[in-house]
Amino acid sequence: MRTIKQGNKPMSILLLIAGADLIISALICDFMKNGFAGRGAMLFGGIIAFLIGLYLIPTLKHHRTIVYVIFLFPLLFTFIITVIIPLILGIGYSFTDWNGVKLANNVGFKNYANMFKDPAFIWSVLMTFLFVFLNMILINVVAFLLALLCTSKIRGTAFFRASFFLPNLIGGIVLGYIWQFVFNNVLINMTKTSLLSQTGSAMFAIVLVYLWQYGGYIMLIYITGLTQIPKDVLEAAEIDGANASQTLFQVKMPMMASTITICNFLVLTNAFKQFDVNLALTNGAGSVQNFLGSYLSNGTQMLALNIYNTAIARNNYAQAQAKAVLFFIILAIVSLIQVNMSNKKEVEL
Hints:
Elements: H1 8-32, H2 39-55, H3 63-93, H4 110-116, H5 119-150, H6 157-165, H7 172-186, H8 188-191, H9 199-227, H10 231-239, H11 244-255, H12 257-272, H13 276-281, E1 288-291, E2 294-296, H14 303-312, H15 317-348
Antiparallel strand pairs: 1-2
Helix pairs in contact: 1-2, 3-15, 4-15, 5-6, 5-9, 5-12, 6-9, 9-12, 12-15, 14-15
């Protein structure tokens, strides 16, 4: 086994000390806001020096682990900077009067209390759950049927796969404006009224567009699950006299339990976070005559769009952050429940 030269020990110690010193100095400069322009380069150089120092540590027992950490560091660092730290700061800001730039006071749970007094917010939560429920059913059913079609023995399955997946490549904002034109200028000639003119039909339009966009992506995952079923199992079912429906429900679907779990999880989380199609297609517009004693003009506004409008349109960043924290908690709880139920179903199958 190759050994690490002991001569690297002084260099590793020197680099570790220098890297730690640069990192701490950069953080102090940033905290003190002294305007030193090179603190970003100082922080980056300190991190690189510290990682090289770790790599040069003369030990065999943990050297492989150190190398793994070094290679994973860029991804872990990016995840911490873009997800973990903003999440922690956001939770803190939700208890203040933060206006997007600075904060003056700690207001406790005031933002959370005001949030539940807002009928528009409660309506957006209900619309979000309705949207998720409809998409959990429609997208999975349609995508699974398309997957069965694209794995059958008909000609042109490659063309069908590409055609069904193509809408997923179009951005949600562009997709929303395209379908807005269709609903307002094409279909209106046949129905005499736009689907976007009423709250109920507008929500149906959003569900339809999201199904058209996302169904092809879920279809590909189902295709992967179907093609991984061993052919000898299907042949054995055919020899035993199982018809097409028996093979589907008693052989294929039980063997695709893990694939179904993945698809349900993806549909659930992405439907909860729906924003771009909602923004481009209706921008939340839609009248609700009497909800909790209030007239609402944002009947198709779902939770992500409501948080965005609270921060940007109403310039209330602290309350928007409180809504985002609640949104995170709801999504985490619902996702954990769904995955746990799906895993139990897999065991039963």
